[in-house]
Specification:
The protein is an alpha/beta fold. It folds into two domains: 239 residues, Alkaline Phosphatase, subunit A; 155 residues, no CATH class. 33% of the residues lie in helices and 20% in strands. It is built from 15 helices and 13 strands. The chain has an eight-stranded mixed beta sheet with strand order 9-8-10-1-11-12-2-13, sandwiched between helices. Strands 3, 4, 5, 6 and 7 form a five-stranded antiparallel beta sheet that branches. Strand 5 and strand 6 form a beta hairpin. Helix 2 crosses helix 13, helix 11 runs parallel beside helix 13 and helix 12 runs antiparallel to helix 13. The longest helix has 24 residues. The protein is globular. The two termini are 24 Å apart. Bound molecules: zinc ion (2 copies). One zinc ion binds next to loops.
């Protein structure tokens, strides 16, 4: 028995999305509807009723963990997802390339995303990775650039702590924030905050005169001349899924965050050409890679991000069209394996992202299970509204454990 879990980020919607219908309701989804008819659906609160989920905490919960116990912050998942080796004691951050102007030694933020820089990040990465700190001794600095303005930073050394504030002021025309310990007098946090402040200052010195920034200035584009750090975190204690269930899984995700979360849970990454973590991702290639990987793995987790990107951009038509692509190119490629009894499939979202709100909300999202061990319910459509009447009712998190249960891999609790 093999399993495939698909999480479409920000899948859920509200009736305000498209004249009384959610984007999912308005989308033509014949394959998902057919699986809903042959399988079972319900509503899942990604974390719990009334909790507005971040994508990171929602994924932990859907994968079977209690985010209130294990979550330390987002930066560590970004570092893992981008290929940095994270060890116990390291402190991790997510980073933005940003644009600042210096006046009298103060760095003032002009653009938090350096004009969503699209090329030349390797040059920026090379200037930052391995930088030497002199104010703080014995701290190594690793940096990796990710997509557009995004990156991840890792500090390694004795006596560091994640309990420090961020340097991103979240507003333009404000100075870069100074990192301080969250608790005054915490020596490890003081040392870490000093390292963060030195990294920030040195990032400006290292980046401001680079060739890429001269070129950007000549083209009238904002230079990427500093990094802003947030999401301070360290390696969470997550019992690997393989040791809980005795099964080996893989992840296919274009976005570093999702790949990082899955790696932290013990999954192995599969690289798929054309998997971008955006609306232009190659969904058919992701599905084909997942089916091929089931020769080597017991289950595969596929993450798709375009639904959430479109919703954050408040673009209902793009979200609806992307859902139709998921149905046609991803589900369409997998449905034969489900109907032949080879694969159990779970399909859901990690939260609702309504178009007019443009951010995550707390409503539950529809979830679908299909495969030979799933007792069909009366539902014939896959949507928020139809899922409210589904046979699985409403539950919180735990979608991967439920899928693994259908595949006969759940450990028994008690004797
Ligand atoms: Zn999300
Ligand atoms: Zn989002």
């Amino acid at each position: 028995m093999k399993g495939i879990l698909i999480i479409a980020d920000g899948l859920g919607g509200r009736p305000s999305d498209l004249a009384g219908e959610t984007c999912l309701e308005a989308a033509a989804t014949p394959n998902l509807d057919r699986l809903a008819e042959r399988g079972a659906v319900g509503l899942v609160d990604p974390i719990g009723p009334g909790i507005r989920p971040g994508s990171d905490t929602a994924h932990l919960s859907l994968l079977g963990y209690n985010p209130y116990e294990v979550y330390t912050g987002r930066g560590v998942f970004e570092c893992l997802g981008i290929g940095l080796d994270v060890r116990k004691g390291d402190v991790c951050f997510r980073a933005n390339f940003a644009t600042v102007e210096e006046t009298g030694g103060v760095l003032r933020v002009v653009d938090r995303r350096a004009g969503r820089i699209e090329s030349g990040q390797e040059e920026l990465e090379a200037a930052l990775d391995g930088m030497k700190l002199t104010d703080v001794n014995g701290v190594q600095v690793r940096f990796r650039a990710s997509t557009e303005h995004r990156g991840a930073l890792l500090l390694r050394g004795e006596g560091l702590s994640r309990r420090v504030s961020e340097t991103d002021p979240h507003k333009t025309d404000e100075p870069v924030s100074r990192s301080i310990p969250l608790t005054p007098g915490d020596a490890a946090a003081e040392r870490t905050a000093a390292a963060v402040n030195e990294v920030t200052r040195r990032s400006y010195e290292a980046l401001k005169d680079l060739e890429i920034n001269r070129r950007r200035a000549a083209e009238g584009k904002p230079p990427a001349n500093v990094i802003l750090l947030r999401g301070s975190s360290d390696l969470p204690h997550l019992e690997p899924i393989s040791s809980i269930y005795g099964v080996h899984g893989a992840v296919i995700a274009g976005g570093a965050l999702y790949r990082g979360i899955a790696l932290a849970c013990g999954m192995e990454p599969i690289d798929v050409k054309g998997a971008t973590g955006g609306l232009d991702t190659d969904l058919a290639a992701k599905g084909a890679a997942a089916l091929a990987a089931l020769d080597r793995f017991d289950y595969v987790f596929i993450h798709v991000k375009g639904t959430d990107n479109a919703a954050h951009d408040r673009n209902a038509e793009a979200k609806r069209a992307f859902i139709e692509r998921i149905d046609r190119e991803l589900i369409g490629g997998l449905i034969g394996a489900v109907e032949s009894g080879r694969v159990h499939l779970a399909f859901t979202g990690d939260h609702t992202t309504p178009i007019d709100f443009g951010d995550h909300t707390a409503e539950p999202v529809p979830v679908l299970f299909a495969g030979s061990n799933v007792l069909p319910d009366e539902t014939r459509r896959f949507s928020e509204r139809a899922a409210g009447g589904g046979g699985l009712g409403r539950f919180s998190g735990m979608v991967l454990p439920i899928l693994l249960g259908y595949c006969n891999w759940s450990p028994k609790f008690g004797s």
